[in-house]
Structure to design on (517 residues):
């Protein structure tokens, strides 16, 4: 399909079908690599579903060509999967009490709202240049410590702090992040 | 190096694609188009409903009374919290209460609304044995005044293992404007479990008529031209349930609806800054370089007197903003 990005942004269902057909094998491979052993196939499916839903709902925020689109969808998949992995790890270490149904319902809504806000951060940060994108996704989407980011990027903790400090101006143009910086 | 670090260092450019079946792709596409919500909310709501589901299945033990007892009560309530569409639905809906069973599967049309532009139908499904997965899909669409053309959005929620609540919102292509009544017919033909690819066929067939609910037609006569696009909004229809914005657009000669790079959108805000939720829309060509259609938004929120409507054409980062226009709440200005 030619010009599928434009058609996707016009919310043409055929373009979405094309995107699913073309990129699902790639997105599933990323989700599987991160989640299959640690969280199982159910988590892989949920992650793939969330990635395409986010792409469909936020397609107008994407700006670029086909190659950049692959990078975009791949980065969303990678970070959503890592986020799910970390949540799973947290759940394993906290002993959960059996709660009443009504309380579950309320918590469900709260979690949902937080998830919506996190999604905005994930999408907004995609507008940053390649070199900064991963660092800021680790900091603001995954909420990693500067030490964890330093280890992952193979740089010193002070280099992380320095890059975060220099990047603040750019971040202030992104609405959801700005809210968190204040 | 720990697991997290390895994951963070994963180079997505080096990933080899996985094999994916056609069924998996179909199921994913269906989930997205039905705006399937995140698992957290979905599970949370399902938990709340289980209690009710068990209660109702006890009630339908006797087949003789089953026909009169709804499969699911207050169908639209299952979608509250996810959409503002149904805030006033029950105030305007007509009870249809038609229930049919075929091949072990019962389909109920609960209630419905026709607002002059869109038709909303609340339905429920109950199966004797089959679990249809999370989002079953029907074989055939709803026919409005003998016509299947139009756009529709179907939302479905699993209530118990064998019971579903759902809503279909259709913007049919209505020839001759907005008739006072519409005739609806629906023979779903089959219910398809996307997860197992199993299809259960049946001969359910529903026919009913809906009268248009009270519509306040506010004359706007708005025309604006930006970058050689002429956009016209003749009126805005406010009903207790929805806000409908009919429009016409004339395009520069290099464009027609099929190759228009822009999407036509409307932003609807009230004086408190509330953004209104778009429910459905439809557009069709009238001549080579002109089109008409409509946008349907959720109802005015209580307390608001004034809506500011801004038409837009959006293409990637480019936005053509038309002048905004204001309409007043007819309920308030009329007093």
């Amino acid at each position: 399909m030619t010009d599928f990005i434009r058609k996707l942004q016009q919310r043409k269902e055929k373009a979405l079908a094309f995107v699913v057909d073309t990129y699902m094998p790639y997105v599933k491979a990323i989700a599987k690599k991160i989640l299959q052993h640690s969280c199982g196939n159910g988590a892989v499916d949920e992650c793939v579903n969330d990635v395409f839903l986010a792409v469909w709902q936020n397609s107008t925020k994407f700006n670029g060509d086909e190659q950049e689109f692959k990078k975009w969808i791949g980065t969303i998949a990678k970070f959503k999967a890592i986020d799910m992995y970390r949540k799973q790890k947290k759940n394993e270490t906290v002993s959960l009490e059996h709660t009443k149904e009504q309380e579950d319902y309320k918590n469900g809504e709260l979690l949902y709202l937080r998830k919506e806000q996190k999604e905005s951060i994930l999408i907004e940060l995609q507008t940053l240049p390649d070199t900064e994108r991963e660092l800021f996704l680790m900091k603001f989407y995954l909420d990693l410590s500067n030490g964890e980011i330093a280890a992952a990027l193979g740089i010193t903790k002070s280099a992380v702090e320095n890059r975060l400090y220099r990047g603040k101006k750019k971040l202030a143009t992104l609405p959801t992040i700005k809210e968190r910086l204040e | 190096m720990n697991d997290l670090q390895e994951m963070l260092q994963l180079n997505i450019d080096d990933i080899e694609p996985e094999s994916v079946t056609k069924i998996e792709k179909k199921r994913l596409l269906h989930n997205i188009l039905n705006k399937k919500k995140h698992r957290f909310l979905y599970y949370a709501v399902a938990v709340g409903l289980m209690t009710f589901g068990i209660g109702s299945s006890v009630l339908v033990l006797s087949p003789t009374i089953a026909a009169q007892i709804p499969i699911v009560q207050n169908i639209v309530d299952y979608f509250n919290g996810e959409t503002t569409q149904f805030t006033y639905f029950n105030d305007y809906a007509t009870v249809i209460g038609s229930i049919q069973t075929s091949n072990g599967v019962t389909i109920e049309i609960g209630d419905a609304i026709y607002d002059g532009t869109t038709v909303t139908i609340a339905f429920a499904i109950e199966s004797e044995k089959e679990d249809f997965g999370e989002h079953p899909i029907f074989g055939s669409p709803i026919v409005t005044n003998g016509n299947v053309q139009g756009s529709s959005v179907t939302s479905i929620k699993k209530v118990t293992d064998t019971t579903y609540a759902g809503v279909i919102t259709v913007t049919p292509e209505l020839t001759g404007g907005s008739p006072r009544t519409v005739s609806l017919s629906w023979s779903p033909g089959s219910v398809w479990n996307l997860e197992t690819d199993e299809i259960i066929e049946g001969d359910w067939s529903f026919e009913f008529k809906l009268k248009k609910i009270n519509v306040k037609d506010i004359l706007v006569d708005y025309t604006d031209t930006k970058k050689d696009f002429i956009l016209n909004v003749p009126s805005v229809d406010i009903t207790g349930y929805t806000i409908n914005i009919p429009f016409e657009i004339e395009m520069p000669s290099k464009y027609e609806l099929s190759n228009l790079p822009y999407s036509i959108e409307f932003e609807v805000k009230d004086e408190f800054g509330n953004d209104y939720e778009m429910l459905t829309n439809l557009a069709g060509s009238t001549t080579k370089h002109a089109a008409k259609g409509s946008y349907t938004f959720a109802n005015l929120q209580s307390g608001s007197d004034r809506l500011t409507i801004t038409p837009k054409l959006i293409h990637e980062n480019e936005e053509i903003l038309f002048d905004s226009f204001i309409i007043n709440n007819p309920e308030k200005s009329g007093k």
